[in-house]
Amino acid sequence: LKIELLEQNSKDNICNATYQVLSYVMIGEFALGLPLNLSVLYIFVFRFKFWKNKSIFLFNIVVADFLLVACLPVKIHHYQHNLRRSEDGVVCKTMLFMLFLNRGVSIAFLIILSLDRYFNVVHLGRRNCVKVLKKSPQISVVIWLLLLPLTVPTMVKTFECCNSHGRQNETKYHDVTDTFREVVFFSQIIIPFFILVYCTVCIVNRLRKKTVGEKTKLRRAVWVVMSVVVVFSICFLPCAIARAVLLGLRLQELEKAEEVAVQVYDSLMVLSYTDCLLDPLVYCFCNSGFKDAYISSFCPTFLQKKLITSESGMGATTTTSGVRTLTLPIIEK
């Protein structure tokens, strides 16, 4: 009995240490993310005037990132007290709802931006339906509303770390709810990831085959389309893999391995919150007008001219095919 108690105390200490460390990681994310996202919101609203620059989709990503940052203090409080989630059911479900909704919104609009870039480069000259949607603010509202039903399963019933599959005494109703939630979770990551990879490969191949201009411009254009994939791979893909492993261990009832997998999963979820720090890089890559407005507002005077001048000329990449010359709108101004 004493040996069992010692082992349990050792596990609890390791677990508590893990969540203490994660709480400090989130403190860092909050300390960096709050001023960064507030400054980005300021630029989009007061300097860049997103509604005039057809950047409504980018603005929606900004809003989702800001709401995510606003949720972090609650998570920090729980982790500081060695709690994986709030003991209050309402707070727990509200937090899960907000985190799932903001993640879904970020992914949705990142995919739309990638599709817009895909049509602009790969199918140049054809009608771009995404560009038409960018002019309508109502479309953004519809996307938010469509994502709400996909987030509701997180609030249907109390569940253990958003993951109650494999628990005893589950009714058929609860099992269906859990299954639906997991399908939504993985489909929101796996399907967009394949779309991103496909769009990126097609765009890079198009640029490599057609571009005969400066290598520097080509390299910058490739970075534009790769930035979204990098953000997605760092923030969302690892936690999806960890969740799949956790589900597998839980269904096999491997309790010791599951305890470790839960901590790994929570750690990678904390990593996914860096999305609010990496997304501003996407804003800069996707829209040089936003970059110029941000630099002129927050960078020292002696750096402004150098930074803006060094990035000029990225608005288009010239391609040549036979006697026909095309200009690919790689970056919107």
Automatic annotation (TrEMBL):
Belongs to the G-protein coupled receptor 1 family. PROSITE patterns: G_PROTEIN_RECEP_F1_1 (PS00237), G_PROTEIN_RECEP_F1_2 (PS50262). It holds the Pfam family 7tm_1. The chain crosses the membrane at residues 21-45, 57-76, 96-115, 136-156, 183-204, 224-246. Keywords: G-protein coupled receptor, Membrane, Receptor, Transducer, Transmembrane, Transmembrane helix. GO terms for molecular function: G protein-coupled receptor activity. InterPro entries: GPCR_Rhodpsn, GPCR_Rhodpsn_7TM, HCARs. GO terms for cellular component: membrane. This is Hydroxycarboxylic acid receptor 2-like. SUPFAM superfamilies: Family A G protein-coupled receptor-like. It comes from Acanthochromis polyacanthus (spiny chromis). The lineage of its organism: Eukaryota, Metazoa, Chordata, Craniata, Vertebrata. It is a multi-pass membrane protein. It is found in: Membrane. Residues 36-283 form the G-protein coupled receptors family 1 profile domain. Gene3D superfamilies: Rhodopsin 7-helix transmembrane proteins (1.20.1070.10). Its main location: membrane.
